[in-house]
Write a structure and sequence with these properties.
501 residues; mainly alpha; 87% helix
Length: 501
């Protein structure tokens, strides 16, 4: 879990570097709006395919490996990869051919030149559906074998290529340099994870019993996700072009926090929960879920409290300058504060939905998400004309909260005594640590030097960790123990090297 968290952190840093470059070069102008609009469809399709496939693929691959053997499981993996490539390549070709009318219909507020730019960018980034689909399957295979290094390095490599391409080629290619960089980075991110698959399987365009079960399990997920994952398209349809980059910057910060706080945990815990469910070990499932929920409370509490207090100085230090104005800073800060509800509800909701999936219940999360998105979309159409991007973000946060609350209520009814023990105590302890961390951060920010908020965040993290270790918090103690063990292993390796010489 720490390896994936470290990978997520590296990816997060590079994403912020890319956002800073884009903010300096384009601010909230037409090129940034065009790029945000062009990415919307590929990201929606990738989210639908990767999310639904992985939720169905992981438990079935693990089950077939344990009951029928590794060869059978890998044959199913080959069929999944073949079908993924067939579907995504076909979509990319058709979407490229229909780019002009498709983009025009989804972005009615774009002008002629801006529309032309968006269409050109879309024809580049639409191929992310292929690369992201492959990355999703390959990451799932690595995680099923408890191999986390390459999945952790893949997004770092992709983001690094995007940063270099944007920085070196923006004068020649404009915002298209970023689009090409993101695509090339995704191709390389898939390539470094491919050897594990090639060692054990080959691409098959044919079905088997495992693929049939996966598709059967995916059917309700895809049917629901094809509807409730349209949220980014609804937002961009309702907003004026000048508001789309504001939404994009604030959502980038929100999604980065979600990746840092919950995604690494989810991919580690999900195979374990699936294994407990497959073997009928309900006690183990409850304990693992309780552990995951406590960890989310441990990580989320200081992040949310910190953003509520210091989002404005953080965004100012990260983005303000060049084409990104003080007015942009204030608006993005307001949006990020509202989005903290998404950080909380999204993190817990993702974990709760995975429990339903390993219980072979895909319909319950889908029904909840469909109802939540419908209520949210109706609200957005009602509030967008008067409240604009503030109304859009508020409606998104409200329906995320609805989804997570509904899943929690239903899961507690489904599994008696489900493992949420210690979560409230963890929130209490984390709030105490967060208050101390906020006080430390405030003192640093008062010094007023450049990038003071970044230094304040680092100081606050150290203070939070120190407080939590002082009260013997399980995760703080675990982290310190891990670092001590890592230090000892490094020393031992150094001693062995000296002895060899």
């Amino acid at each position: 879990m720490f390896l994936l968290s470290a990978g997520s952190f590296g990816h997060l840093v590079l994403q912020f570097v890319l956002l800073k470059i884009l903010a300096d070069l384009y601010g909230t102008g037409e090129q940034k709006a065009a790029y945000s609009a062009a990415r919307a469809i590929p990201l929606v399709i990738s989210t639908i395919l990767i999310g639904t496939l992985n939720f169905a693929f992981v438990p079935i691959f693990v089950e077939r490996r344990e009951r029928l053997g590794r060869r059978t499981a890998w044959e199913t993996a080959g069929s999944v990869v073949g079908l993924m490539l067939l579907v995504t390549i076909s979509f990319a070709i058709l979407a490229s051919l229909a780019a002009q009318p498709l983009i025009a219909r989804l972005n009615p507020n774009f002008s002629g030149e801006q529309l032309k730019l968006t269409v050109g960018l879309f024809r580049i980034v639409v191929w992310l559906t292929v690369t992201n689909g492959m990355i999703g399957v390959l990451q799932a295979l690595h995680q099923c074998h408890h191999r986390f290094l390459l999945p952790a390095l893949s997004p770092i490599l992709g983001s690094g290529i995007a940063v270099l391409s944007t920085w070196l080629l923006h004068e020649k290619l404009g915002i298209a340099a970023t689009a090409y960089g993101v695509l090339i980075g995704a191709i390389l991110g898939a390539a470094i994870q491919l050897p594990l698959f090639l060692r054990h399987a080959r691409i098959r365009i044919r079905g088997d019993a495992g693929l049939s079960r996966i598709l059967h399990m995916m059917a309700p997920l895809v049917a629901g996700a094809a509807y409730y994952k349209l949220d980014p398209l609804v937002d961009r349809y309702l907003l004026q072009p000048t508001s789309i980059p504001l939404l994009d910057y604030s959502w980038a910060i929100t999604s980065a926090m979600l990746i840092l706080t919950s995604s690494g945990l989810s991919v580690v815990v999900f195979p374990v929960i699936a294994q407990h469910s497959s073997s009928g070990n309900r006690a183990g499932l409850k304990d693992e879920l309780a552990y995951a929920m406590r960890f989310l409370a441990f990580v989320l509490t200081p992040v949310v409290v910190g953003l509520l207090f210091f989002s404005t100085p953080v965004i100012k230090d990260l983005f303000q300058g060049g084409e990104f104005t003080p007015a942009d800073t204030e608006m993005v800060s307001r949006l990020v504060k509202i989005y903290t509800l998404v950080m909380i509800a999204g993190s817990f909701g993702e974990m709760l939905s995975r429990v339903f999936y390993v219980l072979n219940d895909t319909w319950t999360p889908v029904r909840i998400s469909v109802v939540g998105f419908t209520l949210g979309a109706i609200t957005k159409f009602l509030v967008a004309p008067q409240w604009g991007v503030i109304g859009i973000v508020s409606a998104t946060s409200a329906y995320y909260l609805f989804n997570a609350s509904s899943m929690l209520w239903l899961l507690r009814k489904r599994i008696q005594g489900v493992g949420f023990g210690g979560v409230l105590r963890m929130v209490r302890d984390s709030m105490f640590g967060a208050v101390v961390a906020v006080a430390v951060a405030y003192c640093v920010i008062l010094l007023g030097f450049r990038l003071s908020s970044i230094v304040a965040a680092l100081a606050a993290a150290v203070a939070y960790g120190g407080v939590m270790f002082g009260i013997r918090n399980e995760f703080a103690v675990m982290f310190v123990t891990y670092l001590a063990g890592l230090r000892d292993r490094i020393r031992q390796n150094g001693d062995h090297s000296d002895a060899d010489q």
